[in-house]
Amino acid sequence: MPTHAERRVLNYTPEEVFDLVADVGRYPQFLPWCANVRVRTRTTSELVADLTVGFGPFRETFTSRVALDRPKCIRVTYEKGPFRYLNNVWTFSPDPNGCLVDFFVDFEFRSRLLQAAIGVVFNEAVRLMVSAFIRRAREVYGPPRFTGPSAVGAPVSR
Fold it and tell me: What is the homologous superfamily of the domain 3-155 according to CATH?
């Protein structure tokens, strides 16, 4: 049951960071483990998507429902696929240096083999994912526009 919580300041507005995370269809362009995305439905407040992820010899597709509460929160819940459960929450709060991002993920695979395999690389996979979002923000929005003591993507103590 890997669980991860992280808090970071990104030197972009909450609206920009929200839009970046909500643009699920573009994940294969920048997330290293995301092989494919098919957005089934999308409204201003919700989307349903099939994501295919691959790590090592494993490749799995799952469906998730993504609640979009712009620009404050994105809540991902599991619909079907290889998990027993999956919960993922992003919150975006204004900060003097841009946006305070709180990220939480908790999941369990049905397969013990898959669960054991991801357990070995989970922390590294999450680190790569967070770094990929930070790089994507620079690609999409350019250099940070906020000045202050906080660096782009600086971790924040809880």
Answer: START domain (3.30.530.20)
